TrEMBL record:
Keywords: Membrane, Transmembrane, Transmembrane helix. Residues 23-152, 173-369 form the SLC26A/SulP transporter domain. Gene3D superfamilies: STAS domain. This is SulP family inorganic anion transporter. Residues 475-495 have a biased composition (Low complexity). It comes from Lentzea roselyniae. It comes from the Bacteria.
Amino acid sequence: MPSTSTFTLPRLTRPTWLSPKVLRTEVLAGLVVALALIPEAISFSIIAGVDPSVGLFASFTMAVVISIVGGRPAMISAATGAIALVVAPLAREHGFGYLIATVILGGLIQIVLGSLGVAKLMRFVPRSVMVGFVNALAILIFLAQVPQLIDVPWAVYPLFAGGLLIMVLFPKLTKVVPAPLVSIIALTALTIGAGIAVPTVGDEGKLPSSLPVPGIPDVPFTWATLTLITLITPYAIAFALVGLMESLMTAKLVDDITDTHSNKTRESIGQGIANVVTGFFGGMGGCAMIGQTMINVKTSGARTRLSTFLAGTFLMILCIVFGPVVSDIPMAALVAVMVLVSFATFDWHSVAPATLKRMPTGEISVMVITVVVVVATDNLAIGVIADTITAMVIVARRVAHLVTVSPLLDPDGEQVTYTVTGELFFASSNDLVYQFDYANDPDRVVIDWARRTSGKRPRSPHLTRSPRSTPPAARPSRSSASTRRARPCTARSAANWPVATDQRESQPALSHR
């Protein structure tokens, strides 16, 4: 009988988010995040000094694009306070067209940095700098709200206090609906129903009534183009660095919460692509949002890219369909939201007396310097870069003094063995050369590198020389470590050195290799 063969079609697996339970979770999570995004996007637009539609467009395009090209599923990217603070001076001094050009250039820089593997450098940013960065961001967001509470009608103040009270007490009843959204709805209904005349979102600018359309930044493309690039490049670099730092920190936080790993390099490149697209669609740019991501991942339980995509989609639907209602939102409600966000963002544990008592002085100094530099310069990137370098110098200075040299004199007194222990690099080597006793060395000196922890070992396990044949003044660069005095033996004579009790105790440094 002829042999028969069977052919089995490959089984197609259904995406995880198509499961009815997962789909319901992702859709509800996207809706809740979209509702919570509206007040924050408008508030960040006001901080940046642009129309509310600019922040809303940015939140829409960032969320939709990053859901496709990003490296961390379920993380929310939109217009943020950090980005708003970076671009606000440029928008105020040079206009909206220069802001859009900065967003596009900043996105291109992020793509380049992501391709070069900048995500791997985040491990060199100390935690003290991270804490200072977060605290400085919270202070800047709070200071940006102060002008909205000066020279305003008296009714603004009770509305502001009422908004804070609602956002503090409502989560104790339920966390299904974001408390900021409840506060905004309640205060808006109160001002409209009672006819209270207070500044509203509509006074700040017109909300969008249609989807954004692509365009080119309104900037000169003539001989002045070089001047334009020179002008916006510092802002674009700060934009790229701040966006990447916030996004990568948020991605790491989501990794810890979900116990999964994300592609940080893809996320870095994805942030750049999303910002380039956002710039051409007239948005102010953005990055990952810690607060909204926590709502999506921790509160709502979302785990896939679908929730991020739906958050952006629902956001634009709410703006286009319910635009007139959003225009009547009182500014006091948004100020209350941002003040609460600033207080929630600040790491109060980091400044608690008990914490400060346990922290090393160097880490406290770096954290304080980060906050001072960021608040003084109004530039998050400058503060983080400057204080990362400061922290590295402090660590290098601390490690440089951890190298020790221990001498061991043979019983016959003809040889001394120096054992080098600790981190050996350019800073510690400067002290190492002063830790050998030239005057009292016997004829034969052995330097044992077995316990040093530098990355590259010498060709020979020991360096030997006769100190009497080579005077201390002649110190070759490669063998100088074998010609100098050990710190533990300062002012010691050969008679006071530790002596090996027998031949077996004096041999391991010579025979173990």
